[in-house]
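Backbones bend. We report:
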Amino acid sequence: MLRYSNKNFHGVYQTYPRLFMWNNENTTSPDEQNFGALSLIYTLIEYVPYTDMMFGTNQSASHDGSQKRYALTQCSRDINSSDCSSCLGILRDDVTQCCQAKRGWRIFAPSCSIRYEESQFYQLSSTPVPVPSPQVPEPVPGGNGGNNTTMIVIATVVSSLAVAVALLLFWYFSCWKGARRTEERSQEILLRENSNRSYLNEGELPITGYDNGEQMHNFNLTTIRLATNNFSDENKLGEGGFGPVYKGILPAGEEIAVKRLSMVSKQGLEEFRNEVMVIAKLQHKNLVRLLGYCLEGDEKLLVYEYLANTSLDAFLFDPEKSRELDWPKRANIISGTARGLQYLHEDSRLKIVHRDMKASNILLDDQMHPKISDFGTARIFGGNQLEANTNKVVGTFGYMAPEYALEGIISTKSDVYSFGILLLEIITGKKNRGFYSQYQAQSLLLHAWQLWNEGTGKELIDRNIIDSCPVSEALRWIHIALLCVQDDPARRPTMSLVVLMLGSNAVNLPQPSAGPKSLVKFTSILSRQSSASLSGSSFLASDQSTASVLLGS
């Protein structure tokens, strides 16, 4: 394969544009799924991404040996195993839309390809060179007929077992499938899972347990409708990019929160995929707990534990409710959120960058303990992966790290930056408005840098807590926040170090680097944008060129 571009594509997996080719002849049952073909492809996708060559072939035969099947999958070796698995998964799902009824087909994408035929098209070697279909060998004159018969029996038994195993594998990975979307999928999937299955189709859920062995529950739609009073407005808790959220009460009396995928939200569909893929494999006291899901008809629902005090922003930025947040509560929220992020970055089975850490995504239970929520834009990294370039910048203005917003460079230090902004907001009780309001001259962050350099950091502390909080501790935590929001990601602490610094005064804090020069440029650029398009909204650029134009980089 040869590829040329005026943009650097090395290490970036791409599935669009795609090329489809197929045999003009249909199978004997064109209206039915070709289980034999799909079982071969599923088996290959399971192991090919984790081979050195990211290439593999597979073959099988019908139980009577009358029909043979051959398949090949391959990824370009500049991408990692997780991206290879995602790429092949996307192509696999296109089979049902273009080529299901055909006797042979190929699907090509910039980073991977899949091919299936009913005649052998590759050599039995490491080099996938197309060759003519092999002829059936003639019996050797004078040969041992008994031995030949024995070999035929053994080959038939082995082939039958292989087909049976392949069909069982196909059933295992297909039994949870729901309705499929018929339109062409050309969007980049925001999340790649660093495990066997990394792409979640519409209507398909990885039914896997939490870290502690619990299983997700498949809720009946009737049960959810009864619990939420048929999604009544009285039960509506709020609405986000995913769709509306409703409070519900199960027959046993358990309170739940139900996220309902909006029928018109494409962003919500991505969030649905990603949130299930991430949260189903995690369990931590500072992460919101997913109880189960419901997929019936056009409904796609996620069922969470209900948290009585909704989100942090509902308290922090409300003039009346903010008085309920005394220093012990704020300190608990800060420490719990930091521990939750540490778990995502370093202690969970997966290495996860949240990408949208903000006050509205911190939920509070009845004891005001924080739980990180909304993993719709989260991204999973490989075990040794430090950073990645993304062609889709997602998140919320005011919380984005400058290298991420301006250059598309994402890492765990992106979350550290967002946490630093959140920490400043919790201590000051003020929003970091400067990124998206043309009426405010500077952001909270710039204001904090100015006061810190002037030695008047005490002025940042919320008036509601200034008389009751330990000022020295609040100033120390402002210092930590400024370390988290330094321009250079390498100078920002890890979340494990942040947790340590928050918990112990014995840890000496280095001086933060000079004020955020890139932030000044970023703020100046955004202040010229239309307030109607930026005010209080999350940012989702369809590609990096769009982001570059918007941000002026």
